[in-house]
Amino acid sequence: MTFIKLDNALNLTMKVLLSIKASQIEEAVSRVDKDLIDVLMKYIYRGFEMPSEKSSGHLLMWHEKVFAVGGMGSIVRVLTDSKRI
């Protein structure tokens, strides 16, 4: 049951991330609470694991903007966290 909820959350998050125009990503990231930047980065990396048409390029734009806020620390925390999204 938890796995199904996780998939639903992931699918919804990917739909939202991919629906935001490239020109609006920086503004969207600036509105994310600093405590949730790592969570957003987790979803971006999870999205890289399940690419669809044109999703990787769009997620790379998200990654760039989230990295600008969270820095290298955000990437390290995401990649070393044992809790997966």
Terminal CA distance: 14 Å
Computed over alpha carbons, the radius of gyration is: 12 Å
Count of alpha and pi helical runs: 4
Mean pLDDT: 92
As a percent range, the share of strand residues is under 5%
User: Could you give the count of β-strands?
Assistant: 0
Helix content: over 70%
Shape: globular
User: Main β-sheet, in a few words?
Assistant: none
Q: Please write the string of helix (H) and strand (E) elements.
A: HHHH
Q: Residue ranges: pLDDT <50 for 5 or more in a row? A: none
Based on secondary structure, the structural category is mainly alpha
Written description of the protein model:
The protein starts with a helix and ends in a 5-residue tail after the last helix. Helix 3 packs across helix 4. It has four helices and no strands. With 85 residues, the chain is an all-alpha fold. Helices cover 74% and strands 0% of the residues. It is globular and about 30 Å long. The model has no long low-confidence stretch (mean pLDDT 92). The longest helix has 26 residues, at 55-80.
